Amino acid sequence: xxxxxxxxxxxxxxxxxxxxxxxxxxxxxxxxxxxxxxxxxxxxxxxxxxxxxxxxxxxxxxxxxxxxxxxxxxxxxxxxxxxxxxxxxxxxxxxxxxxxxxxxxxxxxxxxxxxxxxxxxxxxxxxxxxxxxxxxxxxxxxxxxxxxxxxxxxxxxxxxxxxxxxxxxxxxxxxxxxxxxxxxxxxxxxxxxxxxxxxxxxxxxxxxxxxxxxxxxxxxxxxxxxxxxxxxxxxxxxxxxxxxxxxxxxxxxxxxxxxxxxx
Length: 263
Ligand SMILES: [Zn+2]
Description:
single chain; alpha/beta; nine-stranded mixed sheet; 9 strands; 19% strand; binds zinc ion
């Protein structure tokens, strides 16, 4: 897999010093989010585009999403169960017949920590699905308040390192046959200084929106959309955001990332 380097078509007219646009479509991708719905916000268009070209798209949700409500009396176990159903539906809406596994590690929402055990569990999933590209939160985004997003980013990066080297967690190979695996690219969304754009075509944008709307439990607290007019406004906000992200790269719409390819 290679990426277009600076000097090739698609480079921004200004403001982005070193950049690349559109990786070759990977055979397998793994997207890692703190909560159900984070992946759809961060890289849903990219995953939908790749899936349409045959990429198998796997999801890993680290927490149970059980704090994703403003209802102080909510049944949190029921909410966590509902969010699993929503995440599976979102994965299908993004990838259709290219949808891969959807794994939930089940850490309590709001209490995710980048422990050695959590790192081992993330590395295990990476070794199981053997992605060419891993996507996740950028843990180094400044002034990020939500601890789950910070820890999810660290676990993604640390999980990649542990997955790629044979002497990390040797029991994974010894007891489970999960030998080391080195992805080719790591793409981090929410980056303060993105250096890579993935173009999002209209079909992929439509799939991203449909996948976001699979997370119906989040309409009030995250999408701020409890009726059709507000839902339409939400769609417009997402559409405008992707147009804005694409503009510096000369793209009609894009999702942008910090790309790490020397893995
Ligand atoms: Zn989140």
